[in-house]
Amino acid sequence: MDSIKSALREIGRQRQLLTMNLEVLDITDVASGFRRLTLHGHEIDGYCDPRAADAFKVMIPPLDAPDRRSQAPVRDVQGLPTWPGQEDPLLRALTVRSLDRVRRLMTVDVSNHSDGLLNLWLSALLPGDIVSLSGMRVEWYLPAQIEQLVLIADDAGAPALASILEALPAEFASAGTRIIVPESTREYVGGVEAEWLDSAMEFVPSLNDFKTEGVVGSGVRSQVWIAAETSAVRALRTVAKRDWNVSTQDLLARAYWHRGLSGTAVDARDLERYRRALVEGADMHSPQLAEDISLND
Q: I want to staple 8 with a disulfide (CB 3.0 to 4.6 A). Which of 208, 221, 287, 290 is the partner?
């Protein structure tokens, strides 16, 4: 697997759909604008191949539902998740921040600037409640051939970024990594324990307005990873391909949210796009397909 996109496709094909109902142990503020869920449960035993920045969908039931558990989804003939016999839960994408399989603990960090439903759900959670989630989608891989990394994230993408930073080999990170994040994430991203971060980090007022010249060195193979709002990701993807000459196979651009659209509306739109693409023979595990579906108007 010589590129992030080929790796994500192959690993995705091998992974089975995983559903967990986990108990909330703790909810705490970890930095300005970020809250942390600590979850516990024996079903973590089935999550046996964790990777940095693994993504999942939390299944949000009606806030007044007497039973907060959601049934496990099943794959339809196209391989997409469905919930036969019950109303489809509302879904929101989150990231595994850390995992302790020995103690069966998982932490999940959530930006307070995230979707309104997600924050409403989070504000109603109490220790002892059950959180249902389904995943995991691979979001990170670092091929040995990569010489430079450029990692870009906004508040919504910051938890995934933090997970990646803690997983980077120190010898690689100190020599070949550029990190670009908005000023609003300074306290949170600054909490990542890595001595080399100060020299690699650039805090900017906005991802829509920073100097892109010289970010990627010439004559080196660079991998670019972007996780942010749709319009910013779309613009930065263009810069990476056109100005930085980064191969599409070495570029992962993820739209974590869409200004002006709820997560529910985005999911419904993208689900219909996936169905059409799969009818036409697309590979549902292709990260390029996911990228095109979320970023192409």
A: 287
